Amino acid sequence: DGGITQSPKYLFRKEGQNVTLSCEQNLNHDAMYWYRQDPGQGLRLIYYSQIVNDFQKGDIAEGYSVSREKKESFPLTVTSAQKNPTAFYLCASTYSNQPQHFGDGTRLSIL
Amino acid sequence: AQSVTQPDIHITVSEGASLELRCNYSYGATPYLFWYVQSPGQGLQLLLKYFSGDTLVQGIKGFEAEFKRSQSSFNLRKPSVHWSDAAEYFCAVAPLGQNFVFGPGTRLSVLP
Fold first, then answer.
1. Labelling A58: which of A41, A109, B79, B97 has CA 20 to 30 A away?
2. What's the per-residue H, E or C state across chain B?
């Protein structure tokens, strides 16, 4: 079955540490997205990529970085510059103007 | 400013009762419209979508939504709610050529 795989499901970060969240899709979608979700809030766009080797900042890109070296992969790094990283992170993909397809998310917490 | 609003943060209904979740958007032209559902700790699952044509769209799990251009609304309905429908519901819009914008969500609780 095609889909989006996010890993790990749970992740813990120490002070001053960078952590990377994985997102892999086998849907052959061109566009991929990273969202942050905080309790009781909607989804906020961190970064998106419409094509390999290109990506754009979303609404809350500060403290995050991404890469898009392969069509199927769009990893997100939460850097030490992100002072409030505790959240639920969702990856999505799509093509054209079709609905976005979501992974099951990664919950990041601070140690 | 362009926005998506879901006026109800939390709704509680009894099992078997009808349900309507509200969604309003503010865009110059009619965007593509979507409803998603999210169970705790999970990703979002698409319930239904509206691109054009018939303003009443049917989705999965017995849900439907009606697009009303005059009210800039896309409300989600279900005639009879089941306990398994308890979840968070998100309305989303996609203006042509632009990224999705999600509403803040409505949490649905279902009483036995």
1. A109
2. CCEEECCCCEEEEECCCCEEECCEEECCCCCEEEEEEECCCCCEEEEEEECCCCCEEECHHHCEEEEEHHHCEEEEEECCCCHHHCEEEEEEEECCCCCCEECCCEEEEEEC
DSSP A14: -
Q: Which of B43, B94, B104 sits opposite A90 (nearest CB)?
A: B43
Element at A23 (helix H, strand E):
strand A19-25
- Summarize the confidence of residues A92-110 as an average pLDDT: 93
**Token pair in block for residue A27:** 């849907």
* pLDDT for residue B1: 62
Q: Is the distance from CB of A63 to CB of A47 less than 8 angstroms?
A: no
Determine, for residues A99 and B34 on separate chains, whether the beta-carbon distance falls below 8 Å.
yes
Tokens of A94: 């799509």
Please give the order of strands across the beta sheet that includes A4-7.
Answer: A4-7, A19-25, A76-78, A64-66
Q: Which residues in chain B have Cβ-Cβ distances shorter than 8 Å to A92?
A: 44
Instruction: Report CB contact under 8 Å: B99, A58.
Output: yes
